[in-house]
Amino acid sequence: MKLFVICFVAIASVALAEDPKYTTKYDNVDLEEIIKSDRLMKNYVNCLLEKGKCTPDGAELKKVLPDALHTDCSKCSETQKNGSKKIMRHLIDNKPEWWKELENKYDKEGSYKKQYREELAKEGIKLYDNVDLDAIIRSDRLLKNYVDCMVGRKKCTKDGEELKRNLPDALQTACSKCSEAQKAGSRKIIRHLITNRPQWFRELELVSERQTMRTVILASCVFVIFGGVCYGRPEEEKYTSKYDNFNIDEVLESDRLLKNYMNCLMDRGRCTTEAAELKKNIPDALENNCQKCSEKQRKIGEKALTFLIEKRKELFDELEAKYDPNGIYRKKYEKELQERGIKL
C-alpha cells in the first residue's frame, strides 16, 4: 500500500500538483515534529478522511493524493519519498488504527497493497499487520498451516516466514520491536490457542523453549492485585489513577486484610466493590503486561510481589495456580524481575 509512499508525500511534501514534479515548496516540513505530536498527526489524518477541516497544505495533499497513488509517486522528489516512508512506518508501528482507516478509504480493494508489498518490505516496511486474524481463528485449516510453518512441518506463507524469522528476537526482547497491532494480535491468537487448541499451543511452546524463551510472570497479576491498577475501566488507554494512594503497607502488614483480598481473588469469599472490579480486570492486565499501569501503580505492584515471594510464598503460589494454570504468564520476564531484585 504505497498509500503513504504517497499518502504522506502528503506530509513530507504536501505536493501541489505541478508537472512534471510536485512542488518542493514543502520539502522542509518538520516531520519529527509531526511524528512526536498525536494532535498534529491526527489533524492530517482527519483531513484526509474528511473528518475535520484541512489546512491549506492538507487540502492540497488530499487533492493530489489520488494522482500520486495512480502514478506510483512518479512526480515525487527523493525528499518526499523518504519522508513519506518515515511517516508510513510510524503509522504502521504506532497508530495502526489510523493506518487502517486511511487504507480503507484510499485502497478499498487492496490493489496498492498487493502491488507494493515486496518493494516496501525492502525498505523495512511490513504490511502484515492487517492480516485478518478472525478469519484465521475461525478456520482450523488456516491456523494449522501457521502452526505447521512455525514447527517446521510445512512451507510457510510470506507472513508466516516473516513471523518465524522474527520470533527468536521477539522472545528474547519481550516483543520490544513489535507494533501495537502485532502485540494485540499475538495476544488474541495465544488466547485462542490456549482455550481451544491447547495441543497446538504446547507444540509452539516446545519450539519456543528450544529457542530459549524466558518463562512468563505472574508479576503482572500481582501488580494488578495490589497496585490498585484494575479498579474501574481504562481511561484513555490507562487504568484509573483513583486508587493510586492505595496503602499497600497497611494491607501487607495485616493478615486480616491480606486474607480478605486473597479470598476475594480466589473465589473463597465476598468481595468489596473495588475488589470485585479488580478481579474482573485482572485478565486484561495480565494480557497487556500492565501497559495501562501508571509508574506509581507499577512500584506498588513490585513491592507487593517482592513481599509475597519472600514472605508469603504460599499465597503467591495460590494466585499463580489460579491465574496462570498453564504457566504462560511465568516465562517471559523472569530475567527482568531478577534484575530488579525479584526472584521467582
UniProtKB/TrEMBL annotation:
Residues 1-17 form the signal peptide. Gene3D superfamilies: Insect odorant-binding protein A10/Ejaculatory bulb-specific protein 3 (1.10.2080.10). Keywords: Signal. Pfam families: OS-D. InterPro entries: A10/PebIII, OS_D_A10/PebIII_sf. This is Uncharacterized protein LOC115884097. It comes from Sitophilus oryzae (Rice weevil). The gene is LOC115884097.
